[in-house]
Specification:
By secondary structure, this protein is mostly helical. It has helices spanning about 5-55, 60-145. InterPro entries: Flag_assembly_chemotaxis_eff (IPR053716), Flagell_FliJ (IPR012823).
Length: about 150
């Protein structure tokens, strides 16, 4: 029969690999969020620079208005993308938490199995010692009975 503790050790190892995978996934999503947020911040800086460059010149203001419209559209797309990424991050966090819970379940099951094995070994040892003691007691009674 296969050792249940070794089986649990294998499950724990696999589950820890799942934790590592979930962490990598979470990090990748967070890196994407950081990059997109940096793009959004850059767009805002560029927009402010264009507005300052346009100043009060009517010819430049017309160009600025068109540029501001394109930036607003791009920022809306970025907002939608960030919304998707935030949901992906939430899922990745849930996956990571579930992976940790799974490892903890297996570790607790392993500990319980080890404790049960230790208890069973102690009971067997006690039974063996009791048997040895009873045999010694019987032998002494027989020896006392024969000698007396």
């Amino acid at each position: 029969m296969a050792d249940p503790v070794k089986a649990l050790d294998g499950l724990i190892k696999l589950s820890r690999n799942a934790i590592d995978s979930a962490r990598r996934n979470l990090n990748a999503v967070e890196e994407q969020i950081t990059a997109i947020e940096a793009d959004d911040a850059r767009l805002l800086r560029d927009l402010a620079a264009e507005k300052a460059a346009a100043g009060t010149d009517p010819a430049m203001i017309g160009g600025y208005v068109g540029y501001a419209g394109r930036v607003a559209k791009r920022r809306a797309e970025i907002g939608e993308h960030l919304s998707l990424l935030h949901r992906a991050r939430d899922r990745a966090l849930d996956d990571l938490a579930e992976a940790f819970r799974t490892v903890k379940r297996y570790e607790l099951a392993r500990e319980a199995r080890l404790a049960r094995q230790a208890h069973e070994a102690a009971v067997r040892e006690t039974d063996q010692l009791d048997e040895i003691g009873m045999n010694g007691f019987r032998r002494r009674r027989i020896e006392d009975g024969e000698g007396g």
